[in-house]
Design goal:
By secondary structure, the protein is of the alpha/beta class. Helix content is about 45%, strand content about 15%.
Length: about 350
């Protein structure tokens, strides 16, 4: 088994480990595969929050730890590199195991493990991009285990999202007179796309947005190097995992339509949408939000954000997570004696 790495403990006022806190990393056997999981929180009395990264296959632990560590004051945060992603990527992962059904099963094992470790009956789930599809499908399947669902870059009709993203890229390239981008976009044509064509489209979108310009490199370097749990030597495996996972799963995930698969959820729902998101355009997310039946639901706009509000406007995001989610989940009692 690989070395999972280390994470610093929470310190008390005199340098001691803060009583009741948790800061641990381990490889956990989920679905017959060792998968990397980190749990951090100032108090295990707080609600557990499982973060589901996007992709498929793009670990976002570096983003979450760099920009959203304040959540560890209000929640016990569970960071998970999903099957085939980041520190859970192995070159011999069976390609046939890379299915939505298997990921739901992996997540269920993780939820049960976390609830047992923290003596809780339910978890809060935050899903980003692909993770928002996984989170909704899980919450619909196991409502008794989910206290609240929160999503960003929220999937609805995945095919509609891809059509809107491509239309933006094409129109923006035309507006800017970017002949290189126009040539690439016209060569791949409109969706449906293969995983390789998707990389081309997303690269064009990123360049048109400016996120790949030299002025953005210091921020990217800060993300790559700025957290203690990760090393620059992890980056090749992160990218290999992303390419492998996306290639293995895109044909399935690009056809997901949550309006049909999960038209109702049995817990409070909160969506955090970037107004400038051109990867999962917000109009597709709003269409799902408006059609969704739930006990309560709230949409929060992040006007200065693109696809990652948690990184683009972290202070607002962290405050919204605590202010909106905590009141509806803090009534969940322990399942037994601590």
């Amino acid at each position: 088994m690989r070395n999972p790495g280390k994470t610093p403990p929470f310190g008390g006022p005199h340098g001691e480990v803060l009583p009741g806190s948790v800061a641990e990393i381990a490889y956990r056997g989920l679905g017959g595969l060792d998968q990397w999981v980190m749990i951090r929180g100032e108090s295990i009395a707080n609600p557990p929050l499982i973060l589901l990264h996007g992709g498929p296959g793009l670990s976002e632990t570096r983003f979450f730890r760099l920009f959203n560590a304040p959540l560890e004051k209000s929640f016990t945060v569970v960071y998970w590199d999903q099957r085939g992603a980041g520190k859970s990527f192995y070159s011999d992962i069976p390609r046939l195991s890379m299915t939505v059904k298997q990921f739901i099963s992996d997540l269920d094992e993780l939820v049960d493990s976390v609830c047992k470790r923290l003596n809780k009956a339910k978890v809060v789930i935050f899903g980003h991009s692909w993770g928002s599809a996984l989170g909704v499908l899980y919450a619909a399947r196991f409502p008794q285990k989910v206290a609240a669902y929160l999503g960003s870059g929220q999937y609805g009709d995945a095919a509609a999202s891809e059509t809107a993203s491509y239309a933006y890229a094409l129109a923006e390239a035309q507006r800017r007179g970017n002949r290189k981008a126009l040539k690439k976009l016209r060569e791949i044509g409109p969706p449906p796309h293969t995983a390789e064509q998707l990389f081309t489209e997303r690269t064009c979108v990123a360049r048109l947005e400016g996120s790949m310009r030299p002025r953005a490199w210091p921020s990217l370097a800060r993300i790559a190097l700025g957290v203690r749990e990760s090393s620059i030597f992890d980056l090749p495996r992160i990218m290999r995992g992303f390419r492998f996972s996306l290639d293995a799963m895109w044909a399935e995930t690009s056809r997901l339509n949550l309006l049909d698969l999960a038209p109702a959820l049995e817990m409070p729902v909160f969506l955090f949408l970037g107004r400038k998101d051109h990867w999962v355009p917000p109009e597709a997310s709003v269409a799902y939000f408006e059609a969704l039946t739930a006990p309560s639901k709230k949409l929060v706009w992040f006007e200065q954000s693109g696809h990652e509000p948690f990184a683009d406007e972290p202070a607002k995001f962290n405050a919204a997570m605590a202010d909106l989610a905590l009141p509806v989940v803090q009534t969940d009692p322990p399942v037994g004696p601590a």
